[in-house]
């Protein structure tokens, strides 16, 4: 208590122990929250509520602002482009969450079980690094790389197809409304796959090898061990991966901006790019704010559902 | 899959006395399968690396060479004019410095703010800390679109629009929201005896922070520093909107805008993409060791 003579403990019951004495004097500790708190207020809280307010207004960004209540939202729900952007969000979830998680699980298990054990840990780490490489480059740069490979007239992919005699398959991958979305999805799988592989391989190291040995002695095959041991044991990591990837999929902007600018038409438009267009290209600030608000709401609701589901599954495990 | 299953079942019949013999037999049986698995995984890795391969292949190819021999041939000569031209045209050295300055400032300031916040929340255990931590976590999940227009408007009003300072402030807050969440939970388990000893020695809160908490948590802080740096380096949306003048742009924005506008020829684009990829790989190689160390240090604690 010598250290804090100027700040007497406010709650007498904790006077007895020095340890809790350290936790007291709350007022002095509040000072440390001050710089972070003020910045947080100015950069997150105030803009968040301003955006909420803007979503109830009609405003071109300069000049007069008219309050129009929920008109932006009613217009939004009748807007085909809005629904198209959210349909594309579902496609992004398939490409950035479901496919990478499933493929990543299999890759991690095979790398860990077969490559790591039969060919040594170094081969497994080397392969893991190759799968992880797209994750470390800026996503906008990944977009440039692919935009260049997929150029319709002289890109590398069409060149490759030409070289192997499949030139009938060559096409304007990002420019054709039928192929644009599947192409963007494939690119996002490529971008995303390394993340679950790395997380799941770390998770597998945590699992007690005796579990596998016991199952092997009991005559369980690889696939049964994968289902009965691996999957349940690494469930916490699976939750984290699916939640963070789902949020990333709903927010995706950079690849769309660089690869397609939401086109052709609205074939690859996503909510974040749709909001950007309204904010900065169409000068419909209120409408953009309404799109951003709906997106925020969806992310918050999904996160709560996820975290609840995780808590429930943990309770079930313990119970 | 079926071969794997049947062989491993055969590997462990109760008659087998020692697991070692079982494993040896197992290996004979699996001989072919493991090579097939390896081949499939290597093929997958080749697909993953293919884009990087073609980028390198074409970054040093002359436009004439490209138009006659296509994107998949080896360059007939090492042609660097395209890359040099691009470097000079966009003043790439300055873009690198801008990215470095912004990401570095955000990393340092973000860690500092996270440290202060977490000191109050995790060690000071100020009242209402749980709701504060949840608030920071929520801020981390918010889509940037929901903040962008007000931030754009405010920065214009106070004269910070199109300045690197605006981007630094915004990312310091966004990154420290995550850092606070992480550090606060790490500090929640900070050894009490150490803090007691410091208090008995007459250390003030400020001294305790810098002489006790900071040195002990340095591994975690350095991991945070690296994450903040790389995340900020890779950011695209906010820099795209805030840094409109050429002199302020970061590497991803400069490249992203050029590609989005489809203004460059094939070999220049390839050279540009390579210039965007190289720094990321360099950071990865440099930081990988620190990251591995930091993570192990965290695990031991």
From TrEMBL, chain B:
Annotated Polar residues bias: 1-10
Domain ABC transmembrane type-1: 96-287
Keyword terms: Cell membrane, Membrane, Transmembrane, Transmembrane helix, Transport
Entry coiled-coil feature ranges: none
Region (Disordered): 1-26
InterPro entries: MetI-like (IPR000515), MetI-like_sf (IPR035906)
GO biological process terms held by the UniProt record: transmembrane transport
Transmembrane segments: 32-57, 96-120, 132-153, 165-184, 221-246, 266-287
Topology within the bilayer: Multi-pass membrane protein
One cellular component term from this protein's GO annotations in UniProt: plasma membrane
Subcellular location field: Cell membrane
The family this protein is said to belong to: Belongs to the binding-protein-dependent transport system permease family.
PANTHER family: ABC TRANSPORTER PERMEASE PROTEIN MG189-RELATED-RELATED (PTHR43744), SN-GLYCEROL-3-PHOSPHATE TRANSPORT SYSTEM PERMEASE PROTEIN UGPE (PTHR43744:SF8)
The protein, known as: Carbohydrate ABC transporter permease
Annotated organism of origin: Jiangella aurantiaca
